[in-house]
Write a structure and sequence with these properties.
The complex is a heterodimer of chains A (about 110) and B (about 120). Chain A is globular, with a radius of gyration of 13 Å. By secondary structure, chain A is mainly β. Chain A is built from no helices and eleven strands. Chain B is built from no helices and twelve strands. In chain B, strands 2, 5, 6, 10, 11 and 12 form a six-stranded mixed beta sheet that branches. Chain B has a four-stranded antiparallel beta sheet with strand order 3-9-8-7, with no helix packed on it. In chain B, strands 1-4 form a two-stranded antiparallel sheet. Classes of the chains: A mainly beta (about 110), B mainly beta (about 120).
Chain lengths: ~110, ~120
């Protein structure tokens, strides 16, 4: 069983569209994250949820809205997509305070 | 604020040679340090971490790293490279305060292993 799974793996869409990425973890962790990896492989945290509560919200355009229906799921919705949103988005989870993040395989978003 | 600098965006070694990937950090609080590996088209996987205690940390796949506070470094080494070690390696720092582990990553080092 995949520990952290994201869907879809690839998204190709036009500017201005809205898209969502779903993430689920079956590790029993209470903290989940969204990271963005740009074309130069730079990784930056976007959001973190602990038990459905938003605890990290970096400087991200408000076109990005995370939602955590329960502690095993963290979704990312993006409105009005722009060219600069093209990246690989990684979901991750961890136990509180360990620093050991378990990453999904990533969702590659291409905005045309 | 915390930051990580990885010297060398690309390192090439011969199979069987020593691997040395450099990482220097900046942190105003005692740091927790990590090395993650990313294979092509995959997510990141933890190689090893330093939190407290012994400064020489052993990880998976024969890798180890040494925390040197005086040098603010956490370099990753492996005595003998294998072709399967070819990947992107990321050093990261965190203060592990609060409920979330907010990791700040370096820009990554691509390791190439040649025959």
């Amino acid at each position: 069983d995949t520990a952290v799974s994201q869907t879809p793996k690839y998204l190709v869409t036009q500017m201005g569209n809205d898209k969502s990425i779903k993430c689920e973890q079956n590790l029993g962790h209470d903290t989940m994250y969204w990271y963005k990896q740009d074309s130069k492989k730079f990784l930056k945290i976007m959001f973190s949820y602990n038990n459905k509560e938003l605890i990290i919200n970096e400087t991200v355009p408000n076109r990005f809205s995370p939602k955590s229906p329960d502690k095993a799921h963290l979704n990312l919705h993006i409105n009005s997509l722009e060219l600069g949103d093209s990246a690989v988005y990684f979901c991750a989870s961890s136990r509180r305070g360990t620093g050991e993040l378990f990453f999904g395989e990533g969702s590659r978003l291409t905005v045309l | 604020a915390q930051s990580v600098t990885q010297l060398g965006s690309h390192v090439s070694v011969s199979e069987g040679a020593l691997v040395l990937l450099r990482c220097n950090y900046s942190s105003s609080v005692p740091p927790y340090l990590f090395w993650y590996v990313q294979y092509p088209n995959q997510g990141l996987q933890l190689l090893l971490k330093y939190t407290t205690g012994a400064t020489l940390v052993k990880g998976i796949n024969g890798f180890e790293a040494e925390f040197k506070k005086s040098e603010t470094s956490f370099h990753l080494t492996k005595p003998s490279a294998h072709m399967s070690d070819a990947a992107e390696y990321f050093c990261a720092v965190s203060d592990l305060t609060g409920t979330a582990s907010k990791l700040t990553f370096g820009t990554g080092t691509r390791l190439q292993v040649t025959l």
